[in-house]
């Protein structure tokens, strides 16, 4: 409502002003406006007295609020709860600290709180992840015992290491003996230049190796020469490559001194009488 003004005429008692009743009504309208804006319509909210404002909107951008204790406000606190259910109550006006903790760093930038994982991580006892990668160079693992252990599942599967091809479409797995074997030992890799491990199941050629005859295992056949017999029986499948022959302890040259075909080993010339013939089938 616009301010109501009493008409007082041009001069005293000229009969042109508002009547007493009309003037009183204008005064009442003005006071009703004031009491409504500054109170509840019937009483003023005087600053020197305690008053309760209801249904009022205070524009914080256009007003300054100062020296208001937290105790004078309701809902002036909030509660933080961590993963262990430990709680902390923060009151209005208090500072709240946020620290990264072990292996974490916290930083405030503008209105943002950033928590980042340190480039070096210490004190971890377990890590659960699908893939570990690093930006450059080798992935280094340094333990107090200098041993990196790949554990089994506790029931039936051994700890294993799988080495993939460059396309990650094929791989070879290194695994230990089963639990039932009860084996605890150390395997040393070969010295010297680059090399390949020898397989127990695939065919391969050994080069630059010294093998003692006594260390070879296999079937041994013993015969005695008679000066005329050149053919002696061996196991089917033997060849000059996996058959060693000795006359009186002297090694015989494969192919040159003897041949093998089927189940027969044939000397180039008959061993003389009483010659001790030893055939080792590897």
Task: Quickly describe the structure.
Helix content is 7%, strand content 21%. With 282 residues, the chain is mostly beta strands.
Biggest sheet descriptor: 4 strands, antiparallel
What structural class is derived from the secondary structure elements?
A: mainly beta
Global morphology: rod-shaped
If you compute it from the alpha carbons, what radius of gyration comes out, rounded to the nearest whole angstrom? 51 Å
**Alpha carbon gap, first and last residue:** 119 Å
- Chain-averaged pLDDT: 86
Structure description:
By secondary structure, this protein is mainly beta. Among the domains are: 1-8 and 17-50, no CATH class; 215-281, no CATH class. The chain is 7% helix and 21% strand. The chain contains 1 helix and 13 strands, in the order H-E-E-E-E-E-E-E-E-E-E-E-E-E. It has one helix spanning 20-38; strands spanning 77-81, 87-91, 104-109, 112-117, 161-164, 171-174, 219-224, 231-233, 243-247, 250-251, 258-261, 264-267, 276-281. The strands form 5 sheets. A 4-stranded antiparallel beta sheet has the order 7-13-9-10, with no helix packed on it. Strand 1 (77-81) and strand 2 form a beta hairpin. The longest helix is centred in the N-terminal third of the chain and has 19 residues, at 20-38.
């Amino acid at each position: 409502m616009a301010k109501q003004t009493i008409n007082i005429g041009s001069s005293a008692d000229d009969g042109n002003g508002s009547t007493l009743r009309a003037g009183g009504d204008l005064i009442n309208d003005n006071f009703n406006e004031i009491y409504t804006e500054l109170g509840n319509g019937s009483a003023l909210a005087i600053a020197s007295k305690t008053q309760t404002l209801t249904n009022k909107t205070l524009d914080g951008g256009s007003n300054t609020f100062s020296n208001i204790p937290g105790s004078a406000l309701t809902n002036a606190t909030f509660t933080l709860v961590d993963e262990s259910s430990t709680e902390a109550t923060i009151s209005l006006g208090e500072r709240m600290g946020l620290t990264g903790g072990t292996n974490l760093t916290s930083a405030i930038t503008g209105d943002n709180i950033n928590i980042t994982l340190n480039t070096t991580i210490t004190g971890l006892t377990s890590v659960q992840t699908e893939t570990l990668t690093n930006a450059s160079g080798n992935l280094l693992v340094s333990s107090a015992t200098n041993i990196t252990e790949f554990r089994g599942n506790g029931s039936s599967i051994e700890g294993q290491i799988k080495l993939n091809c460059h396309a990650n479409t094929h791989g070879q797995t290194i695994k230990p003996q089963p639990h039932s074997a009860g084996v605890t030992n150390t395997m040393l890799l070969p010295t010297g230049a680059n090399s390949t491990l020898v397989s127990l199941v695939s065919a391969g050629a050994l080069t630059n190796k010294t093998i003692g005859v006594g260390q070879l295992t296999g079937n041994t056949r013993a015969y005695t020469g008679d000066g005329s017999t050149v053919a002696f029986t061996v196991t089917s499948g033997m060849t000059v490559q996996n058959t060693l022959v000795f006359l009186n302890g002297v090694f015989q040259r494969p192919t040159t001194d003897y041949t093998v075909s089927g189940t027969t080993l044939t000397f180039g010339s008959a061993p003389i009488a009483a010659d001790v013939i030893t055939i080792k089938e590897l």
